[in-house]
Amino acid sequence: MKNHLLTYGSFSEYEIDKIVNEYSEELTFKKRDYIVTAGEVSHYQYFILEGCMRGFIIDYQGKEHNIIFGFEDFWFGDMESFDSGKAAIYNFQALEPLKLLAISKENWDKISTEIPSFIAYKCKLFQNAMMFQQMRIAEHLTQSAEQRYYNLLQKYPDVIFRISLKNIASYLGISPEFVSILRKRAVQK
């Protein structure tokens, strides 16, 4: 986490130590464990130290839709639930064993008060998240499934080794069979 804090913010060693060791707690989850479940309040923001997760919603017909994948050095959580105390609408599930740093709402607010540079860091995180979501929506509406697949591989080259075809297909909005065809085409190129 130290490298992430220094990449996107300006922190002293003391501030980093305080964030990581005083205000964060390390949690581990097994593959398939739920970190956040829709309908419950999300009390933490999570930073991935090791592993991979998916964030998904369930539609009115009970179908899962993957919205995001998270790998090492990635923040996640249901921000609205975390901030407002309302029930989460997102589910977050471990796709691999996960080692996380978790920061509670109380500590998140304390960090923001005691370490002013954390506010600028959060702004950068939110700005990056907003740009990512805007790009994801634009890609989904303007690109073919094949283009979206290749974009995913470009951004996350090891995604095909870490995430199942079913989960990739859900993320791209296509069938697992078509992902298999795209994977074969990619290998042939």
TrEMBL record:
Name under which the protein is recorded: Cyclic nucleotide-binding protein
InterPro entries, per database record: cNMP-bd_dom, cNMP-bd_dom_sf, RmlC-like_jellyroll
Pfam families assigned to the protein according to its UniProt record, in alphabetical order: cNMP_binding (PF00027)
SMART domains, A to Z: cNMP
PROSITE patterns for the chain: CNMP_BINDING_3
Start and end residues of each Cyclic nucleotide-binding domain: 7-111
Protein species of origin: Neptunitalea lumnitzerae
